[in-house]
Amino acid sequence: MLSRGGTTVVGPSIRIQGTVTSAEEILVEGELAGKLELDQRLTIAAKGKIEADIKAKEVIIAGSVKGNVEAVERITLRAGANLVGDVKTAGIVIEDGAYFKGGIDITRPATGQAK
């Protein structure tokens, strides 16, 4: 793994199996299986493959994901993305050419005070 300006890069030849937790942004160009929890953005590059349940602030998918995805802010499926699993997020963007199979649970953004 390599760190570029606050972003950890999982290179194309890297395969990780297990639980990954991070307070910084991660870019996945390789493969990851297990569980992934981030406080920041997760980006899966076009050749990236993930078989894991994901929790992050924001998730951008250009590659392949098999598993449930939960994002506090937004999930973006780029053209060519492949996502099989349920999603839970405040916002979702699905570009033309992206494949998605699963359920969507749109959450309300947290407001300052409950009434």
The shape, in one word, is globular
What is the element string, with H for helices and E for strands?
EEEEEEEEEEEEEE
Number of domains: 1
In angstroms, what separates the terminal alpha carbons? 45 Å
Low-confidence stretches: none
- The protein's oligomeric status is single chain
Would you kindly provide a written description of the structure presented here, covering whatever features stand out?
With 115 residues, the chain is an all-beta fold. It has one domain (2-106). Helix content is 0%, strand content 62%. It has strands at residues 2-4, 7-10, 15-22, 25-28, 31-38, 41-44, 49-61, 64-66, 69-77, 82-84, 87-89, 92-94, 99-101, 104-106. Strands 1, 2, 3, 4, 5, 6, 7, 8, 9, 10, 11, 12, 13 and 14 form a 14-stranded mixed β-sheet that branches. The radius of gyration is 14 Å and the shape is globular.
Which keywords apply here?
mainly beta, globular, 115 residues
Concise summary:
It is built from no helices and 14 strands. It has 115 residues and is an all-beta fold.
Give me the secondary-structure topology.
Blueprint: E1 2-4, E2 7-10, E3 15-22, E4 25-28, E5 31-38, E6 41-44, E7 49-61, E8 64-66, E9 69-77, E10 82-84, E11 87-89, E12 92-94, E13 99-101, E14 104-106
Parallel strand pairs: 2-4, 3-5, 4-6, 5-7, 6-7, 7-8, 7-9, 8-10, 9-11, 9-12, 10-13, 11-14
Antiparallel strand pairs: 1-2
